[in-house]
Here is the input.
Amino acid sequence: MKINIPEQAMYILDELNRKGYEAFIVGGCVRDSLMGRVPCDWDITTSATPEEVKALFLRTYDTGLKHGTVTVHIDKTNFEVTTYRIEEDYQDYRRPSEVKYTKNIEDDLQRRDFTMNAIAYRPSVGFIDPFNGRIDIENELIRCVGTADERFKEDALRLLRAVRFACQLNFGIEEKTYKAIDRNIKLISKISKERIREELNKLLLSNNSEKLLIMHEIGMLQEILPEFDNCFNIEQTHTYHIYDVGRHSLVAVKNIEKDLALKWTMLLHDIGKPLCKTTDCKGIDRFYNHGEKSVALADQILKRLKFDNKTRVKIKRLIKWHDRPILPTHKAVRRAIKAVGNDIFLNLLKVKESDIRAQNPEFEPQRVEDLKQIERIYYEIQQDKQCVTLSDLAISGKDLIDIGVPQGREIGNMLNRLLDVVIDNPKDNKKERLLEISRNMFTNK
Here is the structure.
């Protein structure tokens, strides 16, 4: 098989070869090409030192000199070029304390995590594949290079990467590698929360996010998301449900579009259920106020994983309202928009649909059709420019002051009461009509 290397990357390989250095594309771009996927990045490895690389190309950036990496800029595109290296003495389960350069490509490939990522290629040479990574790709297996325990002790992030690749590529995990993950699971505590978040993000955005179940089965979830791991022990004996809370949430994650805030919403939307489960006299499980508890737990988790404030707030708002009933009527939809917020209302409908599709399929058609009707009504409300927020009111606080309403809290209270009036009767959203209603409110208070 030949790999079609981009012209700019091929230019870098040729220039290094012309000067007497070895150079190959390596890692993920080779793996993806062998799988028929389009690589996101084209990484290059070479026998040239960083100084020699910098001397050879006009525009370079020192992006990782201590690890032997120089970024070469060709035709508005950046390529990471890294010197063959050997890494020694991992002291923090994440980074080597010492990096040594080598002239042997196989020494460089030996330091890599999985066999599928330890393949180098150059058209004039073909594949350098000392660990049979191409066979593992054909067999759809994730296998550590060399001894799995050693690879995980070198870099504990590889524990998470193994599961993430299983989700992204829909691969299995080779038995010895799987057992080594189990033995070294506690090393996850050595990984920064930011790196855990990024791996989970990639996993949730993959086509096989339901494989997050592997993390539960191997004990990994208990180390990184114990609140969610507890959901797998919570059965839902109820007409609307067929899964336990954890599996229901994973199906809901898979159902929703590839948007990080929505993916995390579905993962965490029922996370408070273990804290509020009750069973009534008929044996039906109830989860009163689980939305409120889910918001509180989600906030703790999102802060722990260092999410930005904007994303955290959006996820919490969607979780808060995910279980709010909405009837498919204009008045009910207007009231829901006011309560939830116009900015996230359509996302809330997506959340609700994903939630429904992860429940009992017997009730799905009518409930989904109701959501579609609610969406149609929402667009009618928007098209007609019906009032659903304070900013849509045909009257302002200044208008209320002009008729004698004292400044302060009373203004806000009255505006909200007027909004309720207009939401029930959209035709009342006219300045003179609202002033009339305001005078009656103020006189009769």
The chain has a mean pLDDT of 94. The chain has 22 helices and 13 strands.
